[in-house]
Amino acid sequence: MVKAFVFDAYGTLFDVHSVKEECNKWFPEKGDAISTTWREKQLNYFFLRQLMERYEPFDQITRESLRYACKANGAQLTEESEQALMEAYLNLELFEEVGEILSQLNDKRLVVFSNGSPGMIDPLVGRSDISGNIDEVLSADGIKQYKPVPAAYYYAQQELGLEKEEILFMSSNPWDITGASSYGFHTAWINRKGLQREEFDIQPEVEYDDLKGLLEWK
């Protein structure tokens, strides 16, 4: 029986591109482009650092990728605008159905497990409307190994004190859901963008458009 529902945060519970509104305040008409590049480089940078074994916390990676995104899109980042945009990452919007669905899953242990460093993920969850529904927040910073390496999922499992088959892991990110599936968790891919499945021999157990499908696991 599944005892814990473990959620990735960025792109799964929280819309990372909700920062485009703040981007547009500082750089009119460039918000979409900056937001897109910011996220792409954020992923690229932590993957590279993981491969090179040169770990840095996710907040530093997020700041460095923001600086790249602004330069790449011809936006002059200042100390003030940089701080405002980093702060926006601590106040990302929840996807529409998240609060309602999590309130219906309160008979399960609800956990957030993110690559985000504690200084990013703790305030993000704590300021959100789901803070009262979440039992624990785990960060890959605790082991300084980013998902999707097996050590990251092992760390989460040990922190929860559960067997693999007692954990259902959810993510919207294909690389994350593949990593969790490979590790041996039950997995539900929250395919918000309607992406094509990866051509791997490792596949998620189930696939949903949003979190509503999780009610099947109650």
Question: What do you see in this structure?
Answer:
The protein has 218 residues and is an alpha/beta fold. The protein is 42% helix and 14% strand. The protein has eight helices and eight strands. The strands form two sheets. The protein has a six-stranded parallel β-sheet with strand order 5-4-1-6-7-8, with helices on both faces. The mean pLDDT is 97. InterPro entries: 2-HAD (IPR006328), HAD-like_sf (IPR036412), HAD-SF_hydro_IA (IPR006439), HAD_sf (IPR023214), PGP-like_dom2 (IPR023198), S-2-haloacid_dehalogenase (IPR051540). Belongs to the HAD-like hydrolase superfamily. S-2-haloalkanoic acid dehalogenase family. Keywords: Hydrolase. This is 2-haloacid dehalogenase. Pfam families: Hydrolase.
Layout of helices and strands:
Blueprint: E1 4-7, E2 14-15, H1 20-26, H2 31-52, H3 58-72, H4 79-88, E3 93-94, H5 98-103, E4 109-114, H6 118-127, E5 136-139, H7 150-160, E6 167-171, H8 174-183, E7 186-190, E8 206-208
Parallel strand pairs: 1-4, 1-6, 4-5, 6-7, 7-8
Antiparallel strand pairs: 2-3
Helix pairs in contact: 1-2, 2-3
Provide a brief overview of the structure.
This is 2-haloacid dehalogenase. Helix content is 42%, strand content 14%.
